[in-house]
Design brief:
8-stranded antiparallel sheet, alpha+beta, signal, Serine/threonine protein kinase, single chain, Protein Transport Mog1p, Chain A, two-stranded antiparallel sheet, 39% strand
Length: 184
């Protein structure tokens, strides 16, 4: 093979690889209830970890040795924060001298066609891969931040969550909130 042909084939291969990478980062439209919003392009779509999740994304930490964060959507969920929030709060260990309510922040807002309720906690998370499975091993994850969101429309509700090391969630939370507020 001539040198010019080898260079041409090499450049073509690089171009194909770049096109494939660009196609992989195409933003995904996510439905939650009757609403939908386009996920940020930097979120990497993954196969959902279980059948309760309709969508799941890896949110890259960008920091060496620091785990990535995760975003997921659970459609057809309970719209009542009085049921969900206490269970979610119980998955955190408050620091000495504080209560869970000292470290949990609850906010509410509305988007067109939906009420949104948010529970935001930073601290030591008692992570379980399968929270309702008594055999699922609990893993303490210090300095984690989890933001649970209930999006309630007239007929249905969805639970959304971003979770990961606090520094990673802090960095990506503005995009997460903007994504929710962009839902139509």
């Amino acid at each position: 093979m001539s040198l010019s042909r080898a260079v041409t084939v090499g450049l073509f291969s690089v171009a194909l690889a770049m096109a494939a990478r660009a196609a992989d980062s195409k933003p995904e439209v996510v439905k939650f209830g009757k609403l939908s919003a386009t996920a940020p392009a930097e979120w990497k779509s993954e196969k959902p970890a279980n059948r309760l999740r309709s969508n799941q994304f890896k949110v890259l930490s960008g920091m060496e040795g620091v785990p990535d964060a995760e975003v997921y959507v659970m459609p057809d969920s309970d719209p009542n924060p009085d049921k969900s929030f206490p269970r979610w709060k119980a998955s955190f260990v408050p620091p000495d001298g504080k209560t869970i309510d000292d470290i949990a922040k609850v906010t509410k807002f509305e988007i067109p066609g939906a009420k949104v309720q948010v529970l935001d906690i930073t601290g030591t998370w008692k992570f379980k891969e399968r929270p309702f499975d008594p055999k699922s091993k609990e893993e303490l994850r210090p300095e984690y931040r989890v933001v649970w969101v209930i999006v309630e429309t007239k007929d249905e509700a969805a639970h959304l969550r971003i979770s990961g090391p606090a520094a990673v969630v802090d960095k990506h939370y503005p995009a997460f909130e903007k994504w929710i507020k962009s839902a139509k």
